[in-house]
Amino acid sequence: MSPHAIVKNSTNQWWKNATVYQVYPASFKDSNGDGWGDIPGLISKVDYLKDLGVDVVWLSPMFESPQCDMGYDISDYEEVYAPYGTVKDVEDLVAACHERGMKLILDLVANHTSDQHAWFKESRSSKDNPKRDWYFWRPARYDENGNRLPPTNYRSYFAGGTWTWDETTQEYYLHLYAKEQPDLNWDNPETRQAIYKSAMRFWLDKGIDGFRVDTVNKYSKHVDFPDAPITDLKNYIQPARHLFCNGPRIHEFLREMHDEVLSHYDVMTVGELSNTPDPQHVLRYVSAAAKQLDMVFQFDMIHLGMGHGLEDKYDFTPWALTRLKQIVKKWQQFIDGTDGWTTVFCENHDNGRAVSRYGSDAPQHRETSAKMLAVMQTTLTGTLFLYQGQEIGMINAPKNWPIDEYKDIEGLNYYKEADRQSNEGVDPTRRARIMRGLQILARDHSRLPMQWDDSEYAGFGTAAPWMRVHDLYKEINVARQTGDPNSVLSFYKRALQLRKEYAELFIHGSFKLYDGENENTFVFEKVGKGPGGNGEERALVALNFSKDVQPFSMVERARDMKLLLSTHAESVSESLLPFEGRVYVTERSGLVN
Ligand code: GLC
Ligand code: CA
């Protein structure tokens, strides 16, 4: 099939109003009782997603993979990991989504492959292999005593160095993540063409509707590979993100990818943009005129509670609500007056659950705080992304689960590093601190099996799943919440409907923060065009992030407005109950459409 020649234009932007729902294939639904979620399982739940109000399904990597990093280590872009299903199953999933007016996007993992990918096997086979230069190979360095050293001192994302020695060809190769994830050399035009063909057009031609673009700002490296400055005196390896994020040719590569591949299809792209705090820089990626990406995930809010830099990511540091508010404000307002676009999200497969991080997972607060976060998410401007289980208020794994229940390579590597540093006396309390951090921030929390009902294994499947089911699955599950008008699930459905009904206000409106210094409540206003583009509408959103009753500072303004949505059936207007969330809107005068 030849690519359809669809030119993107400003009137063809279905992805702006879309609600996207991320599915983590291993943990969503197991159809055949082997303990692993799969694509037929997902297909059996497409009606559930439709009913929730989902427009686009984002499926995390389901490609052939040795699963060192849960599929973010791809050994064949054109095959599906057998436990998840087949290429035909993905085609059926595309059809199942399209039949219901929904769309499907996949993950594009093109910064690195698995070390089991045929490209890397060839590349490592000899120094003069034609694919040698598809990855980064560099000779060793030696210190004054003749000890072999890697080409640079970079710290990788998974608590180790970024270079692995290859005995056969006596050189090191680069990997920003695990050693099983060698980085592709985007500076080589042949490599880029191979990625476009195998990782992109292969699936685009099967009718998928776009990509979430993994680690999107890491394709371009400083290929002279300078050492990073020494800032961590405990280690040889040093923080070096500035040397491999937003590299010199990144915008050129993304523009080429857009022009040569993406512009030929009616698709959306959302890039995973880490380590880029400057709004002007983010705009270079998402401005429509730049023709690179439609939007990106920016991670300032997700980083709340994480320690400084890569090395201390899991050393939990308490954060203040005022900081969260400034972050939301910054990333709501950065597109004002520009041709760029933004995203709204608070969960994904790389983080702890939002209720446990930003609300409270204590029994008396968890449902309310899940709803309060739903109010915040559904009234903010940008494309909204939900993560599986967020719609029922799933929470972090219990704190008493031992480290053996954690499976993620990143978390485990940090734990092992901390264990070593504690044992060696370099940092005696580090093991305990990192364990505490993992209890809040680990990537594992979001990877627990989806809780469908109260049968054994939470209705995820008929056999013990690859990760332990949450202890509270009998209380928090889809079946229990379906049809209950007061459940988190019903609340999400209603909030998602209102988001569509008031799209100009909630999805496209401008954002204004009130009372920025208040440490307990988050109050903001949205302003947008009225129905049919006439006049102007306003919404006032009030959220109590605390466990106590708080005064509602904007009560006077709210009196002239209509209460559109509230976490509590009955409340007093002058104050906000613990974790209460409310949305008021200006009355629509007579105009019904
Ligand atoms: C992205 C993914 C994460 C993965 C990493 C390496 O950050 O979201 O899960 O480990 O890329 O591919
Ligand atoms: Ca299965």
TrEMBL record:
Which controlled-vocabulary keywords does the entry list? Glycosidase, Hydrolase, Maltose metabolism
GO BP annotation list: maltose catabolic process; sucrose catabolic process
Question: What terms describe the molecular function in GO for this protein?
Answer: alpha-amylase activity; glucan 1,4-alpha-maltotriohydrolase activity; oligo-1,6-glucosidase activity; sucrose alpha-glucosidase activity
Against CDD domains, the record matches this protein to: AmyAc_SI_OligoGlu_DGase (cd11333)
The record's annotation in SMART domains points to: Aamy
Q: Which domain of life is it from?
A: Eukaryota
Q: Residues in domain Glycosyl hydrolase family 13 catalytic? A: 22-430
Entry keyword Chloroplast: no
InterPro entries to which the protein is assigned, alphabetical: GH, GH13_cat_dom, Glyco_hydro_b, O16G_dom_2
What does the sequence similarity comment in the record state about its family?
A: Belongs to the glycosyl hydrolase 13 family.
Protein name as catalogued? Glycosyl hydrolase family 13 catalytic domain-containing protein
Source species: Helicocarpus griseus UAMH5409
